[in-house]
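Reopening closed ticket. The problem is back. First fold of the pair:
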Amino acid sequence: MNDLWINLILRLQALTWTDWLDLLLVTIVLFILVNALQRAQAAFMLRGLALTALLLLIVALLLPLPTFGLLVRGILLFLLIAIPVVFQRELRHLLENVGRRIGFTPSAARGTQELMQPLVRTVEQMADQRIGALVVLQGEMDLDEIAETGVPIRGRVSSELLTAIFFPNNPLHDGAALIRGQTMVAAACVLPVSRRQIDPTRRLGTRHRAAVGLSERTDALVLVVSEETGAVSIAEGGDLQRIEDQTALQERIVQFAQRTASKTPPAFSVSNLFNPDTGRLRSSFARRLRHTAARLGLALLFAISLWWFVLSTASELPDVEVYDVPLQVENTAPGLVLASGLPETVDLVVRTVGDARAALDEEAFVARLDLDGLEEGVHRLRVEVTPRLNTPVQVVDIDPAMVEVDLAPVGQRTLPVSAMLDDEALPAVYEVQDEPEVAPETVKVSGPQPLVEHVVEVRATLLLSNTFGLVTQTRPLEPVDQDGNRVEGITLHPTEAEVRVTVGRQANVRELGVAILTTGEPAAGFWISGLEAEPSTIIVSGPEAVLAALGSAVPTLPLDVAGAAGDVTADMPLDLPPDLSVQTPDREDIRAVEVTVHITARRGNLTIERPVELSPADTAAGVSITPSMVELLLSGPQAALEEIRVDPDLVRVILELDEVPGGEAQEYVPEVVAPEGIGIQLVPPRVTVTGP
């Protein structure tokens, strides 16, 4: 369920303004349908369809059921087609009501203009006869609550009807008459009375206070005829004004009708626009507001579920992979420890939105294994991952999601420490001359009881290389089993030990070099540029007197290089007395070494002059080259240079021209052709060519 809310929050954060507009429009449409159909005869069917569709949406969102989701999409499509058919009468009434309220049919304010003449005439007659009257002309605000306090009339307004209602001693005389358009909606209505001081210079009765009270709360125009004085007054917007003549009264009614018709009506709101006349309110304003809020909440819930379902099936948020999140183990019971190894890290697949994706790394999450309440034995636990980011993040997948944990009681043992000598890098002429000493001599081994029992030895390995004399090193300790393999999951105290041992030179053993001997001379123009022996040093052991006579190197038998013009390689025996033994530094017995004699050509320099040749030859007519002879500085093997000195035509300077230049001089770089291995420098590097 937590992932469900995170997914919802992520999708809300990913919304653009067009998505918000989409959600708003869907909510408005659903709210209109709920209000339009709430009092229809098929209202129970509507509620059943709505609840069923909402339930299907929630199930499809909560559970990963692709086939069921496809079925839900089909059902929703069917409902979109079926609702207009089943509720066609209610929807037609809704559209008529909308048109009436937003201006496609005459409103109550516009209808007021058509009843102006009989109304004005009747008011003047009642004023002349001093008949008290209270007439309410409804504007754009709904006055159904006022109408419910009176007697329903629902008749067309006429002078006779008004005179009859306010005739003295008529039971309907004392209340207010409510007119909506050309219809007398109700009479004897009770109006709210204003409690503020209206006009200190005038003594006002209940009629006038009721007229002002209603005008303070609504946009209605209220006409008052005083029973005592016959004066006509108009209350509007909380103000009470006396009307002097018939013309002024007529102008005020016309202004009211025009002004109300031109305004954006307050009734065009969520609570007033979509309440049909057949669905009169039967409760107070607060109850009406609660019902409207409930319907709006239902429409919003349905819209979000529908919108979320469409987005979830149409598109997915991109997945981001996060590797190597450290795994922490928490709340291990006292006296128990982990007896098996656990993965140090886990890999995640997560989802988020916006710039937060750039911050998704191993430091942005905490992976935990909670061992609270677990006893000895093997347990299979789920890895818990918590994001550290303030931005909502949905964890889609954890690898591994489940980890097997083996808890065992803590065991302890005390074992001696043994020293292991790693002398592979120690020169062959050196040796360990005494037994190694270790401090401390024992170590405490603790950890899971089964693992502690597998430890048979604790080792400290001393590394010996190019060192001699007293060698002292502090080395880490390592618990091993009977096969010499390290036992993981063990704690040692202390974790290090000091190892001491004496390393000295062996008696009657020397490390000597190899002296390579050659005989003969390489070919003319070549020389010995280098000598190599493999191995280049050897370990010789034998009588001390014989070793002392060898000096610092052991010679090989001579290698014949007579007439060689390249490298010569051969296995050459060592020239040693028979009572000496020879080994490589890797302690391999040998009596010969591999010898390589590097022979290279001697190099020299030569300077010659050569003419510049034009190619093709038929372009030479009328063409001059400056200079016509160029100097060449040659370098290379002496034998090749000697051949060039004897035959200079081995080197040619060629200038290729694709076309003969005009009269203007142009510079070119000629090409030099010479034997392989010869270095060339041309002086000058360019020549000037002038055409005919």
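Second fold of the pair, where the issue appears:
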Amino acid sequence: MFYSFHRSKRLLFKSSLRYLITHPLQVLLAILGVALGVAVVIAIDLASSSAEYAFTATSEVFSSKVTHKIENASQNINENHYAKLRLRFPQLTMAPILEKSIKLDDFPSQHFKLYGVDPFSESQFRDFSMNTMGENQLVSLFSESNAVLISESMARNNGLNIADKLYFTIDGKRNEITIVGVIKSNSKNINAALDNVFICDISVAQGILNRFGFLSRIELSTNNSDILNQIISDLPTEYRLTQVENTSNALSQMTSAFRTNLQAMSLLALLVGMFLIYNTITFSVIQRRSQFAILRTIGVTHKEIFFMISTESFLIGLIGTLLGLFLGMLLGKGLLVLVVRSINDLYFDLNLSQLVIGEFSLFKGLMLGLIATLASAWVPMREAFKITPQENLIRSSFETKKQSLAPKFALFGVILLIFSLVLLFTFRDSLFLSFFLLLLVFCAYALQIPFFVTKIIHIVRPVAVSYFGNVAAMTLSNISNSLSRTGIAMTALTLAVATAVGITTMVGSFRYAVTDWLDESLKEDVYISFVSSAGNGAEGEFTHQLKTLLEEYKDIDNISTRLWTKINSQFGNRPALIQDLPEQGFQKFQILGDNSLISYDAFQYQNTILISEPLANKQKLQVGDSLMLLTDRGEISFQIIGVYRDYTTDQGLISMSRNIYVKYWINPRISSFGLYLHPDALPDVFIAQLKNELATKNRDMFTALKIRSNATLRERSLEIFDQTFAITNVLRMLTIIV
């Protein structure tokens, strides 16, 4: 009996090996189906987790020991307040910080941060402080003008060396910084956190940024409630003591929709790959029905046949998954560029060039590939397990059973489709649930395809036969009579095409909506922004000179200004757009719903705000509600007088008149100017004239400005839109390839 058992195993092994060797293309397609599906999932997971790791590492390195911070709305803390706190609480762990985002002339596509610190206070907060600085670095940091330190990884990734000079422009002034040292650390977190940061003495930062006597914030480390209460009682009205939140959680909340979209696309590619696996295993079962019948008649049990097919499926899945892991790491490096660019465009500045390969991501991909393979092969394995030797020899019995199931699957698919669509329109606010229900819609659609294909064949057969004769009849009959093979192939192809068409339609429709929004929002003829300002704008003196110069031009009818900033609200820090608009510019807001409270005078002269549609939806706000905002003069309530359409950010946007903003905030900065030209003036001619005059009379101002026409800015905005959806298009193509 023991000999018979091993003889049976050897027989099955030889039979399986012979089949796999004689059908290499079929096996290769199954392996590629698994590999590509796993590769897409792994690539997305690695790229997303790398971006999240970079942000989390920054949070841990810079803020892990910080419990509270003192700040105000405009991030202008008088350094005298820090001195008073230091004298009153000498034992309290605290540190002054001055930071600002900058863009370097030599690396215009990357985002960097200038981080001014007090080296003597830093050792209590961060591990890259004086403890890791050499004596020569410390001397240079204090003695040399505009001296900065960089991390070893930043030097390596950007080809930077000690004594290198870098340049950037702020407030129309070209600034120079000199690298005087490199911070070396064996910590991955520190290297990741400092990958885009220039460390300098706080006095150097104040000089470069022209913020003498001011700090961005004061960081504290204490849980002593008595000390905290004393600090609060002594704070000026415009200052606030806040507890440091978990910024990694803030990242997850901010980018959750973005990551969910990517994961849904990658899982869809794996789903299409599962159809390919199912088809391959089904083919192998059908092709060997007579062989299985012979094996059963000579004593091989149905369990042994089941084991043979499951082993084949496992090996195909294992080889495909391992290949997919390798391809996923290669693909992840390319997708990382697209993910980081999308995060920079949509959320916050992130500079990341290295793909972080986590063991858990690889393990997750391995398990996902094997489980997907075995799950997709389960049905054909059970078919081989259940069929008797007599049925194995009668091919028609197998196909008859499949054809009899098609109407039942179609009916179930119709019921599932109706159920999914009802729930999808009922629970539209839940992104995760919407994706799950969308998956059910896909499954419901897939269940109906074989049945409706056979009906379509029945309808078109007479016409096809009349034109193409018996060849058409045989072809169509083969499709309907071999439903076990053709049904899955047609379903997989249909879903792939449906995915491609659906994504193309979605992106195209959204692009059309954004184009329409840009046409309504960009009312000015010419736009002037500041080079290398990283979105922060320029100080009042420089912008005042520019505005005075612009007012001398007769071709300009009106001038608008914008400031992009953040305002602390009851819902946390929110992006805000501060605008000084003429009445003709106020018409650009595409108001949604109730407009009973909105008027130009109310927006311009009263404590009112407009909010974008995403903010209204996320926080359940509506016209007439009040929003409490932290200003430099304390907390002030502002009434919401309108909700408008906006595609700038999915986090929501607060719009406020500059007249009201300057009453409560001490922030004279301006991010950009908009010029309304006389109807007879030609924008391109005016821009050429303005550039020529600036280049001749004020070279510094000319190099600090970016001047674009309405058409150019609109074109650039659509380029950013296309860049944002580049990763979606890549995933769409990968799904079609699978």
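Update: turned out to be a display glitch only; the data is intact. DSSP finds 27 helices and 21 strands in the chain. The first strand starts at residue 68 and ends at 72. Please close again.
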